[in-house]
Amino acid sequence: MNQAVKQPPNKSQDYTSDYKAGQDNIQVMGMDIHNPVFTTSALAIVAFIVLALIFPTEANKMLTGARTWSIETFDWLFMIGGNIFVIFCLALIFLPVGKVRLGGDSAKPDFSTMSWFSMLFAAGMGIGLMFWSVAEPVAYYTDWWGTPLNAAAKTPEGAAAAMGATMFHWGLHPWAIYGVVALALGFFTYNKGLPLTIRSAFYPLFGERVWGLLGHIIDIVAVLATIFGLATSLGLGASQAAGGLNFLFGIENNISTQIGIIVAISAIAIFSVVRGLDGGVKVLSNLNMALAAVLLLFVVFAGSVSGFFGNLFGTVSAYAQDIVPLSNWVDREDEKFYKGWTVFYWAWWVSWSPFVGMFIARVSKGRTVREFMVAVLLIPTLVSAVWMAAFGAQALDQIQGGVGQLANGLGDVSLAMFQMLENLPMAEITSAIAIVLVLVFFITSSDSGSLVIDSITAGGKVDAPVPQRIFWAVLQGLIAGVLLYGGGSEALKALQAGAITTGLPFTAILLLMCVSIYKGLKSEV
User: Fold this and answer.
1) Is 244:438 a contact under the CB 8 Å cutoff?
2) Distance between CA atoms of 43 and 7, rounded to whole angstroms?
3) Residue 159 backbone dihedrals phi, psi, to 5 degrees
4) Dihedral of the alpha carbons of 387, 390, 391, 394, in degrees to the nearest 10
5) Closest CA relative to residue 115, chosen from 444, 435, 415, 507
6) Long-range pairs for 209-214 at CB < 8 Å and ≥24 separation?
7) Is the pLDDT of residue 347 over 50?
8) Which residue has the higher pLDDT, 4 or 114?
9) DSSP letter at 5?
10) How many other CB atoms are found less than 10 A from the CB of residue 96?
């Protein structure tokens, strides 16, 4: 009786490769670097800093023009892409591929569910919720820069539209963007044995070519988007923390204070990144969530518990009612709001997706695709709704009641949170907690970002030497501090515009990732 001859696996269809993480690396000054990516990225960063310092106004004008052009010209691409990402991620929860486990059937999670969620949430948008959960609804309600769907400002309808639009910007769409990148990297790293770097997500589409020039370009763009986004947030966030210290303790909000905050954040981030995921990022992320929970519960009970649940129901209802019209990109009558807020946000989320997505992938081994998408997409959306209902809706209630400084309109955005807390009991204590939260969220973003950039510039290795981790943590703070000191807000705005502009090519990259993910998952099932 003839026996079938067992054939070797077809790597092109199985999406595995003989390429090993770090095989092209070189060792320099105690670092293990992937030379084309590390060197090109570092030189590009230095060149940008020098030019931004010498020509801050010109750099801001050029990069702001590039950002405006990408948003004005390709608003349809950002919106269509965002909608596709949400539909794609929701579909994976229910499709048979949802049972695929990252790392294989026998893989076990590296972190408890609570620590896992704390890390992905802290890296994803914890700091943004501190900054915008009050300022954004107030901005929409008072027509600070357009109103969603042209809702009448300072009306009950305007308040509902403000909460619905705020949730739209912090709900399913941004987390779907992160989820696409995170799942692609997690699957191809843990299930197919490819290096933990952005280029690996495109192996099903481009094969072995991803280890060459094409892959170098993808990884370099990811590094630049990540470092610029983190440095921008660190620099602009220092002004929020300094504003809070001035508001609370009378400490002067000047360049010296802001530079001091950046130095302190960077120092703690370096200590954390040296300790790694378990001893650093996980500990800080758990601390973040504990402090955030304390502040949230205080605001709920200090305001009105029944009022909170009413606001929560209203926020979720407004989100569900407005998600479709807000997702539309054709014949929008609220163009000022649509392009100034929504498309801007989509470009920003996409530019952050390499960093946040890779970090989520790194901590998500052992989870099924279904479990992964529920935790990355649905639970953060619910948490955001609870947070916005407590803080944003509380601020609108104060405005409608004519209470506090926010009733006079939105002034300094960085002070909005503190101005809302000022009208609740124990304002000094809660404001101090808020400042600590802002700082710790920045630290977790900085050190998780350093670990991500470290992995990309080490050819996908996750155990690169400590000096390499320190290098990127120091560079983030150095960029923010030097630009803030030498060029002020003009230089930081130029950096932010540059980061957001990278959202345009990355939107196309993410759409290709969806195809890669589905092909890869299908090969497993």
Assistant:
1) yes
2) 47
3) -65, -45
4) 160
5) 444
6) 211/17, 211/19, 211/24
7) yes
8) 114
9) P
10) 12
Query: CA–CA separation, 273 vs 264, rounded Å?
Result: 14
pLDDT computed for residue 13 by the predictor: 62
Report the pLDDT averaged over residues 78-103.
95
Q: What is the CATH number of the domain that holds 223?
A: 1.20.1730
Alpha-carbon span 329 to 335, nearest angstrom = 10
Query: Does some domain include residue 16?
Result: no
Tell me how crowded residue 38 is: count the other CB atoms within 10 A of its CB: 27
User: What is the number of domains present in the chain?
Assistant: 1
H-type alpha helices, 142-171? 156-170
| Number of H-type helices and E-type strands within the chain | 21, 2
pLDDT (mean) for 147-176? 96
CA 383 to chain centre: 15
Distances (CA, A) of 285 to 117, 174, 323: 9, 20, 30
C-alpha separations of 306 from 232, 303, 346, 383 in Å: 39, 9, 34, 18
Distance, in Å, from the CA atom of 194 to the CA atom of 308, rounded to the nearest integer, reads 47
CB atoms within 10 A of CB 250: 8
In a domain, 12, yes or no: no
Residue 508 tokens read as 């196309």
Listed residue (352, 290, 312) closest to 117, CA to CA = 290
Q: Give the pLDDT confidence score for residue 314 in this predicted structure.
A: 96
- What letter represents residue 70's amino acid? S
Q: Are 498 and 228 in contact (CB under 8 A)?
A: yes
* Chain CA centroid to CA 181, Å: 12
| Residue labelled with tokens 């890296």 | 123
4 domain residue, yes or no: no
| Cα 170 to Cα 388: distance, rounded to the nearest angstrom | 9
Letter for the amino acid at 347? Answer: A
In a domain, 15, yes or no: no
pLDDT level of residue 330 (50, 70, 90 thresholds)? very high
Tell me: the pLDDT tens digits for 461-500?
887 788 888 888 888 888 888 877 876 667 777 777 888 8
Residues 6 or more apart whose CB falls under 8 angstroms from that of 402 comprise none
Range of the domain at 326: 30-524
Where is mean pLDDT largest: 168-172, 233-237, 260-264, 479-483?
Answer: 168-172
Inform me whether the pLDDT recorded for 5 exceeds 70. Answer: no
Concatenated DSSP letters for 77-98?
Answer: HHHHHHHHHHHHHHHHHHSGGG
pTM of the model: 0.91
